[in-house]
Amino acid sequence: MKKSTKLILWISILFISVGIKAQNTEPTIQSKLNGTIVDQITNQPVIGASVNIKGTTHGVETDLDGKFYFQTGQKFPYTLQISYIGYLPKEVVVDGSPIVIKLTEQVEKLDEIVVVGYGTSAKKTFTGSTAKIDAKQIANRPAQSFDQLLGGQASGLNIVQPSGSLNNTPVIRIRGINSITSSLYPLIIVDGVTVFTGTAGGAIGNNPLSDINPNDIESIDVLKDASAAAVYGSRAANGVIVITTKKGKKEK
Q1: Whether the Cβ atoms of residue 167 and residue 147 lie closer than 8 Å to each other
Q2: d(Cα 195, Cα 237) in Å, to the nearest integer?
Q3: pTM value?
Q4: Who has greater pLDDT, 188 or 166?
């Protein structure tokens, strides 16, 4: 009887100590953070930017408004790492307050020639906002048409395929949505000729861009702002994509 009494006593003490320890355990911290990623110059939202908590595996992407949201067990303050193609990566220390983070566009290859409506210009002397896509960036990649390959190749250029239907026009956006009622598609020029204005955008089996052979493309210039696309008038309100095809060259 004495042994059984001692055993019961020890078990009781063990359960009491475990209960006290559980009560003293700190609760899991659920820190919340709201933020927005925008372009430093235009203040337009950066869609699809990668936002990660440094030193962890926690990461999200910005939505169509450039917004992101975290709810984790991380204690404030902690460091966010932000990256997006065409922009310089950035690290920001946050303390829980709503934050707006501005990304700086990555400027390189200043010796490039930019194709604009009235001719060509050197990248280093051109003041408009443009991006150049070399044919090598989209070469040897399977797709129904070349326009489906442009997504992620230039900052501010977003391509969404609305369905898997053959020859279906993709949704193309340059620097977000600029209108509620009118067309949101950019003007597309091939060798100086307008081939697409977006009036038939989204129609199944009605994609004029599918007639362009990706192997025939030499370069693609994306004109983003008003100064770069001014020569095209109101049709360029949503930006311009200028496509230059390959031509025969005289050997020297």
Answers
A1: no
A2: 16
A3: 0.52
A4: 188
